[in-house]
Write a structure and sequence with these properties.
Structural class: alpha+beta
Helix content: 25-40%
CATH topology of the largest domain: Aminopeptidase
CATH superfamily of the largest domain: Gcn5-related N-acetyltransferase (GNAT)
Strand content: 25-35%
CATH class of the largest domain: Alpha Beta
């Protein structure tokens, strides 16, 4: 049986290369922002295999887990992983490729309270094509930071109502404000404005090694179906490519408008993605 280990500073080069190769933007973002873990609520469990990593599990704060490549591990290795994360782990959400999430769900021997399935998509082009002028006059784009928090809060809340809010849950404005501020400080956020009014937003929600993950795409209903999202997404992809990275995202398969948008931008489906929630 291969033994799992907790990553240390000596594992950093191997860990960064592994996260980049697997397009694992979320754990890469946590490592980039918080450094090598030094506490139980933020650590990487690695399954070494010679001079490479065979599988990985990120264990974050507030019961967040992100497994990678668990599909190739045998049952004994999975039982060892269960012991490595501790006897009574708090589990709130598990995110990753569907096969990895299902494999991890099985070892904690609990059924998720709620599951959301997505397509994992990747922008595979080397350049952004046809990044033309705004789709209609008077529209401008700019990057924003923490100074825009109150202006963007209504869009943040509207986005959460449409795309994020789980069944039986209500919007918590204080939490929405905190999430928005974290995004403005740590992520790449672009807005489209007309007459000094924000009509759309696109952003990354994880900036990893080798790829950035897009999330929080929202257009005011009054300005939809006019090419705003596509135009703004091209600006974001262009900026990500300037930083030398690829672009990924995940989208619900039944969100036809989003699938048309990303397909038209030449994103390709990389596989099934899932978030399991426990409460």
């Amino acid at each position: 049986m291969r033994a799992w280990k907790t990553a240390t500073h000596d594992d950093l080069p191997l860990l960064r290369a592994y996260l980049e190769a697997n397009l694992a933007a979320v754990p890469g973002d946590r490592l980039r922002r918080h450094g090598m873990p030094s506490r139980r609520s933020h650590r990487f469990h690695l399954l070494p295999e010679g001079n490479r990593i065979a599988a990985l599990l990120y264990q974050g704060a507030s019961g967040f887990f992100y497994p990678v490549d668990l599909g190739g591990t045998d049952d004994r290795s999975m039982h060892a992983l269960r012991r490595a994360i501790g006897p009574f782990p708090r589990v709130y959400s598990v995110m990753g490729r569907s096969a990895d999430v299902s494999r991890f769900d099985a070892i904690i021997r609990r059924s998720p309270s709620h599951v959301v399935d997505y397509h994992l998509m990747r922008f595979s082009q080397t350049t952004v094509v046809d990044n033309r002028d705004p789709p209609f006059p008077g529209l401008s784009v700019r990057r924003v930071g923490r100074e825009a928090s109150e202006r963007l809060l209504p869009l943040q809340i509207a986005y959460e109502r449409e795309e994020v809010l789980l069944p039986g849950r209500e919007i918590n404005i204080a939490v929405s404000r905190t999430v928005l501020m974290d995004s403005l400080v740590n992520q790449l956020v672009l807005v489209a404005e007309r007459d000094d009014v924000v009509v759309a937003r696109v952003a990354t929600n994880a900036r990893g090694f080798g790829c950035d993950q897009v999330g929080g795409v929202y257009v005011d209903p009054e300005f939809r179906r006019r090419g705003v999202a596509q135009w703004l997404m091209k600006k974001l992809i262009e900026q990500i490519q300037t930083d030398g990275k690829e672009t990924t995202l995940f989208v619900k398969p039944d969100n036809r408008a989003a699938m048309r948008l990303y397909g038209g931008l030449r994103f390709t489906v990389e596989g099934a993605f899932r978030i399991s929630y426990y409460w």
